[in-house]
Amino acid sequence: AAGQSIAVAVFQRSDQLGDAAAGVELRLVGLSGYFPDYEAQCNEAIDRLHAAGRVRVTLAGFSEDVAGLLASTDALVVASSSESFPQVALQAMAARTFIVATPVAG
Question: Which pLDDT value is given to residue 95?
Answer without folding.
Answer: 93
